[in-house]
Specification:
It is built from 6 helices and 4 strands, in the order βααβββαααα. The chain is of the alpha+beta class.
């Protein structure tokens, strides 16, 4: 991975202590977001807090290539909102709602 392309893991403060060293070793850095809320057993990231955490990291490292992936349905919309905010290609917020709001699928 080049110096300007890094793999970041964004987790909420509430779940950061549960991220194993085995998982952390696959990422260049773990970024902590605050003010998440529980959605069943999963924590949904707070959009504004996550934007702030990523903005400061992007400024610090001047990243040239950024992708946002999501591993939990609870954060599908948050990931899409982050892509839209940072002008990153990928699933849009309206497309993400199709995955998280099952009533939209039947229409």
């Amino acid at each position: 991975m080049s110096e300007k392309n890094k793999l970041l893991l964004v987790v909420d403060q509430l779940e950061s202590e549960n991220v194993s060293d085995q998982t952390k070793k696959h990422f260049n850095e773990v970024i902590i977001s605050f003010s998440g809320k529980y959605c069943g057993p999963i924590i949904t990231l707070d959009l504004e807090s996550t934007i702030q955490a990523l903005q400061s990291y992007f400024k610090k490292d001047n990243l040239q290539s950024v992708s946002i992936i999501n591993t939990s349905e609870a954060n599908t919309e948050v990931a899409a909102e982050l892509r839209q905010y940072f002008n990153i290609s990928g699933l849009t917020p309206s497309e993400a709602r199709l995955f998280t709001d099952k009533s939209l699928i039947s229409h």
